[in-house]
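Query structure, 236 tokens:
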């Protein structure tokens, strides 16, 4: 049986890499092609989902509400060149999670062009297109392992930097690696966020909201299997 009600999907890089990304370049399967992203959107639309930003997703918790939030983590440059055209053509608003300390770096887990990260100036293109942005911490550590002062910097300074850059509230957060504990969740709440995303499935909690890992190497068939519970919820 298909999942009923709201669903949130997680993506990372989106890049046109000829349909094949080598394991050596992308060992964690973080790169999705524009074609697969489009196939996922069209499947969800056929299933009757309405696309919303993360903030709207959190606000709409009515039983049976059929909304979908597309979320993108880490701050890849390919969001502007490859994800955004698909989202605009499909008229979908999504939410992008940024690491201000990673502007213009290379992603540590993705080699080559697909692993290039956004410049701060590129964020305006996302916002101007009607996309939402949130924080993914300052520079993507496992927040469970940092001290209290550094934790506040990771969640607080990142929020302030994004708000100064966009002139808009930064009210949602995605835990790096989807990892958190009670201390981390409390720090995110204290920093003023309204919602924080985890990774693995579970009951709805505002500061540990579950997301479904979108299948980066596959189109609508694999996503349908995950929605139907025929594949593990959290795997790619």
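Result returned for the query:
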């Amino acid at each position: 049986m298909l999942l009923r009600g709201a669903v949130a999907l997680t993506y990372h890089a989106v890049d046109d890499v000829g349909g094949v990304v080598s394991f050596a370049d992308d060992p964690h399967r973080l790169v999705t092609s524009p074609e697969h992203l489009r196939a996922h959107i069209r499947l969800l639309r056929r299933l009757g989902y309405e696309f919303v930003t993360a903030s709207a997703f959190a606000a709409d918790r009515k039983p049976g509400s059929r909304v979908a939030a597309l979320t993108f983590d880490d701050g890849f440059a390919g969001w502007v060149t490859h994800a955004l055209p698909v989202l605009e053509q499909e008229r979908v608003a999504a939410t992008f999670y940024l690491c201000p300390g990673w502007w213009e770096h290379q992603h540590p887990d993705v080699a080559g062009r697909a692993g290039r990260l956004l410049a701060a100036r590129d964020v305006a293109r996302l916002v101007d297109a009607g996309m939402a942005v949130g924080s993914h911490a300052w520079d993507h550590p496992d927040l469970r392992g940092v001290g209290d002062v550094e934790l506040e910097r990771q969640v607080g300074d990142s929020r302030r930097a994004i708000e100064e850059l966009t002139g808009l509230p930064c009210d949602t957060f995605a835990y790096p690696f989807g990892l958190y504990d009670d201390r981390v969740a409390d720090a995110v709440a204290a920093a003023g966020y309204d919602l924080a995303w985890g990774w693995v499935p579970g009951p709805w909690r505002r500061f540990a909201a579950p997301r479904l890992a979108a299948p980066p190497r596959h189109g609508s068939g694999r996503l349908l299997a995950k929605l139907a519970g025929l594949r593990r919820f959290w795997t790619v």
